[in-house]
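Appendix B. Chain record.
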Amino acid sequence: MDKKNKTNLFEKHPKKTTAMIFLLLLLMLYGIFSIRFINNAYTEYETKNIKTILQQYYVGKIIDNNIGRFIKLREYRPNQVKFERPTKNYLKHIAPNSIERKYYRIATDSHGFIGPSEVHQTPDYKIVFLGGSTTECLYMEETERFPYLVGRQLEKVLNKKINTYNGGVSANESMHSLNILLNKVLPLKPQVVVLMHNINDLVILRSQGSYWYPYSLKSHVQTSKNVFTRYEFPKQQHQADDKQFEEEFRRNLVTFIAICRIRDIRPVLMTQANRIKNDALYHRFNEVIREIGAQQNVLVIDLAKSIPSKTSYLYDNYHYTAKGAALAALKISQAFTPILKEAR
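Structure tokens predicted for this chain:
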């Protein structure tokens, strides 16, 4: 038999075969690090692509060699346009047909707030919203998110130019928002800052026992993190109980109010709308928001009581549909109208 007939595929096409083997290895690597058991329950719906995995690794190396520890500002990158689509796995865990599986646009301004934000160059009022994914309103059109709608509705009533800034970031808790408040909201010199937190605080306090948790991608003080340490909230042994969780949350709310008042900003608190039935501490956190508002003489917009616990308004336990965001915007605008008229 001729030797040419015995030539294998690699010998015939060495470059193509090498490229194919390399691609298969990359796919295997991606598959290994996307297996659900590597992620904990909090990140089981998230996806990571090869670019993100490699970036986490090399950025970690750069930090190790040049920076060391740093304080992480959890925000969207300024002047960025990106598109997010809910995964098929994510859609399995929410109300059927409540959101469409398509790409949703997220465009940020020069400060890293989700737009449209700087609608006017010289606004009469600036209102900043801080929170997690329930403020972010990721899976809806840009003009359907409630922070944007509030500005447009108030303009009609007050006949004033109003810029509203969406500072929501998925999985942020109140300590993240305090960091954002200090480092990028205060220089903006807004008249009003609104804070809405609950479930994300509860998640990290239950798993970590404190707002200071070093072994996470969401830690406030960070060292390098790479693909091998990409846990969000690793469970830790701790002795904290519900009373301590409540007190930690309470102190962050009071700190937020104090910082705003020192800087002549009007603080506003909001409770979190929800479809939760069997979590007493979650509802207790909403009650703490009401109590702090009464004690500190701060406006509380009680969305937990204003938004019906129906799938038409909330596609899962916490997140708004477009209809829910529209109702939230209406309730917020109605609460703001008298205080802005008074300020005018």
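Further analysis of this model is presented in Appendix C.
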